[in-house]
User: Fold this.
Amino acid sequence: MTNLVGSKIFAGHFKGRRALVTGGGSGIGLGIAQAFAEAGASVMIVDRNPAVADAAAGLREAGFDVEHAVADVTNEDQVRAAFARVVELWDGLDILVNNAGIITISNLEDLSLDEFNKVLNVNTTAVFLCCREAAPLLKASSNGVILNASSGQGRQGFIFTPHYAASKFGVIGLSQSLAKELAPSGVRVNSYCPGIVKTEMWEYNDREWGSRLGNYKPGELIQEWIDEIPLKRPAEATDVANLLLFLASDAGSYITGQAINIDGGMFMN
Ligand code: NAD
Assistant:
């Protein structure tokens, strides 16, 4: 990982604060978990992939206060258990990052209802489940913050991903509604919209979009899209994490109900 400027600027800022990051076992979520841990927070990493145990152990070995829970965020009981564990360990929660997400790429007539619902369940419904579970804990905190993963596709639907686009537009609406409801309790709710972050998700995107949009070899489609980004590079997980550190910090205390692009200028709305 590079670009760790955020956790240096915010070093120690999050000491005593407790964060839960979903989908934190790999990709962007792991970068976010690491950044908050480096900035002093106690971090619970939740992921359905049991390999999350190794990710958490790696961060603990580096000296950070990091725990993990293997849980599917679409499963109400498993979500409850993960939050209960946070309370047991740290007696409360200050920061919830709903980062877990999935994508599939399909033309309309091959897209089954199951596939459509699966993407909506992970990307949108699970955000509701985790926010609902977190709400009483965040209200009791003096720094309660929710950060929800949307996407450039929460701004504009791309081809062959109607379900993903719907799910990410949904995250922005859900976040705005909760921002209004929770503001009087001192809880801020924002969403973040990454553009291209080179994770496993993008390996799949490159392959699947590439084969549908033309005769692209692996790596060619993503490069074509990166060439269109004003800042001419994909994001690192740490670029996203830097934004989230700011939004969750005291420096972000007047920001709520916003969806913020972190995409090198890919979208300017
Ligand atoms: P990724 O596929 O690399 O990692 C996602 C992580 O979430 C994995 O560890 C996976 O096990 C976990 N996960 C998936 N479903 C889960 C579930 N039901 N319960 C618990 N954990 C689950 O994805 P990423 O690229 O790191 O993306 C993270 C978030 O950012 C997602 O919400 C994604 O939609 C969003 N996003 C990514 C990009 C990008 O370019 N990579 C762009 C825009 C938005």
Remarks:
- Strands lie at 18-22, 42-47, 66-70, 95-98, 145-149, 188-194, 259-262.
- The radius of gyration is 18 Å.
- The chain has one domain: 5-197+235-262.
